[in-house]
Automatic annotation (TrEMBL):
This is Iron-sulfur cluster-binding protein, Rieske family. One of its GO terms (molecular function) is 2 iron, 2 sulfur cluster binding. InterPro entries: Rieske_2Fe-2S_sf, Ring_hydroxy_dOase_asu_C_dom, Rng_hydr_dOase-A. Residues 91-275 form the Aromatic-ring-hydroxylating dioxygenase alpha subunit C-terminal domain. It comes from Burkholderia mallei (strain ATCC 23344). Its cofactor is Fe cation. The lineage of its organism: Bacteria, Pseudomonadati, Pseudomonadota, Betaproteobacteria, Burkholderiales.
Amino acid sequence: MYVDDSGNQPASCPYHGWTYREGRLLIPGRERFDGCALERAKLRTFAVDWCGDFLFFAAHPQTDLYTQLGRFAEAVENISFNIDRRLDLNRYDFECYWPLAIENALEPYHIGAVHPQTLATLGLEDGENVFDGVNCAWYAPVGASRQRNQLARLKRFFNLDYQYEGYASIYLFPFTMISSTYGYSYSLQHFLPAGVGGDRTRFTSRLYAAPAASEQAAQALGAFFESTRDVNRRVFEEDHAICKRMPRNAWSMAPLACAADTEAKIDHFRRACRTFAASRAALPVVDATREAAAG
């Protein structure tokens, strides 16, 4: 039904014209479906909720949105109110099992080796890991003085009421990352399982600009945003290049045997995976055959 990468359109099937509008399914030639319970036909629905200007959906929510986001709900709200427009949509498959892609995004230990000409040029300091429930974040000051001073001077071009003056990366279990440098733009990333097989991850990054202070400021920021987009794409390409070298059996839910302090978020992620797996195992198993016979 939806084949474009973005935008809005009616919920209408281009093959036979079935259309969902205002809660009703409109079916051309409805009278031809004799004996069919068309009144029972409907689209699959999801639970939705807002956090600021971000809309979240869930297939089978186990709690409410703000409980799931925990202490990071405030940051997510503030970020949503401090984005202006989309700068880039970057979507392709990572050739790896999705937890491997998540762990690559979580730990900064690899930055020097994998991103020497991109992310590593910021000279990110150790910073602080923040954990809350299954979610976590990393806030790291920019250690490279030249880049730090350049970024600080750009602040006058923006109209911000929320900013972390450094590099911030927020992980929302299980599939979402939000990252930013100085709050001038935000990369919203999703790492979704690609179905049966498990050797691919549906990766999407949406890059959003923070509001400019004026029209003149927006024009002055053109080259900066173009560079931001290009660097973001290069960083993800570098991550993909290393992730696709790791086989699926390189990952497990077990704690790392020997973890650096920069890999603390990996162990936190694996612990969250173990907790989720245990909760799934505790669910009652329904014998569909017996249930059908009883009905």
